[in-house]
Design a protein that fits this description.
This protein has about 180 residues and is mostly helical.
Length: about 180
């Protein structure tokens, strides 16, 4: 989809803009498809009397946000799986090796489990994977604010019902009224 020497949009590109717009594509999606800037697409759409429905843009933005959240969730799960695989190595049979000597020789031998230094490195890697997973999860949660808000709303509604019942029945009788 080449452009003419002045850099303005070709008839083919303008036709593609109309086609993509009619299909419900967003401005940024059209720009990506044509390899043009968003402002170029906006100007072309204005000249073509095409506008973008705000609800359509909202829906596209919401879809991108949901897609990003799904990718982060998959990444967080992957990190936990990585941590689990790494942790399993702590007590698994392993090999220790050495390269050295005047002939720079390689030697290895099996061991029942990794040496302490390797275990420490494994644990640091496990901790990093778990911490990163938790940070990703925290990014996509409201920290319990929605649940607290819901509980407060329910409590307020219950207090309102109790107040309405008390005021409807008049002042409560006391033992002093006898």
């Amino acid at each position: 989809m080449g452009t003419n020497p002045r850099g303005s949009l070709t008839d083919t590109e303008l036709a593609r803009i109309r086609e993509l717009h009619a299909a419900g594509a967003t401005r940024n999606a059209i720009a990506a498809d044509l390899g043009r800037s968003g402002s170029t697409i906006s100007k072309a759409c204005a000249k073509l009397d095409l506008s973008f429905d705000r609800e359509q843009v909202k829906a596209a933005t919401a879809a991108k946000v949901a897609d990003a959240k799904a990718l982060r969730a998959a990444l967080a799960l992957g990190l936990l799986a990585d941590a689990q695989r790494l942790r399993a190595q702590l007590f698994a049979p392993s090999k220790v090796y050495n390269i050295g000597g005047k002939d720079n020789t390689y030697t290895e031998r099996p061991v029942d489990e990794p040496p302490f230094r390797d275990k420490r490195d494994i644990m640091q890697s496990v901790a990093t994977a778990v911490t990163t997973s938790l940070r990703i999860d925290d990014h996509d949660t409201d920290g319990g604010a929605e649940g607290a808000r819901s509980m407060i709303d329910a409590l307020a509604a219950g207090l309102q019902v109790a107040y309405d019942q008390i005021t409807a029945n008049g002042p409560a009788a006391t033992d002093d009224d006898d």
